[in-house]
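Hi W., the S-adenosylmethionine complex you wanted:
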Amino acid sequence: MEEKERDKLLGIKTVGIREWVNNNHYNRYEATPYKALDVLFENYKFIDINRVVDFGCGRGRVSFYLHNRFNLPVIGIEANNKTYEEALENKISYGLKTKHTTAPVEFKCSLAQHYKIDKKDNCFYFFNPFSVHIFRKVVDNILHSAEKDCRKLDLILYYPTREYEEFLENSTPFKIVDEIRIPGEIDKREKFIIYRLREEFLYKDI
Ligand SMILES: C[S@@+](CC[C@H](N)C(=O)[O-])C[C@H]1O[C@@H](n2cnc3c(N)ncnc32)[C@H](O)[C@@H]1O
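Structure:
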């Protein structure tokens, strides 16, 4: 099914691209393909996940998909004002179409690096929203939150860059727990990597 038809089923509009002008750190808007989301969520089950944060949520496709399929609380953080407004419009039209879900869907217009991690946030989704420089700050905020409120934490990376991977591998207590490829894609980056916080980090002070 075409991306636009999948949007229609959810009552949203998320197809398209929006570039930033003169910004080397913030990446353009484009949504994770539905085909990739289908593959991810056949493999990744939300065990013990209380709320998912989509950093750089764009028009909200991932949030609506998750909410609709798993009835999970989700929050999307978006820096671009116009794109954020579109996510809010989608929230209205999605709400009209989808009445069976009870968990909240929220959007915040904010820089990801300024978002205060809530203790219920324990799964973080990234589809190349920004430079590794900003990614480092966001991961640092996540780790501070885990130090304060000890809990299981997962990161999901779609179409990851080498820089993101190297940073997580060499400079953080996250370990890879799964790598999910998209069948039929020859591009090596067409995959999801799931990282989980090592238990030693959680219990280091005990
Ligand atoms: C590749 S899109 C991903 C959209 C969505 N997560 C998805 O997978 O469908 C990246 C988004 O991150 C946003 N973004 C870029 N820098 C950001 C920042 N510092 N804080 C929050 N959002 C940012 C962009 O405006 C864009 O909408």
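The domain at 3-13+31-202 is CATH 3.40.50.150 (Rossmann fold).

W.
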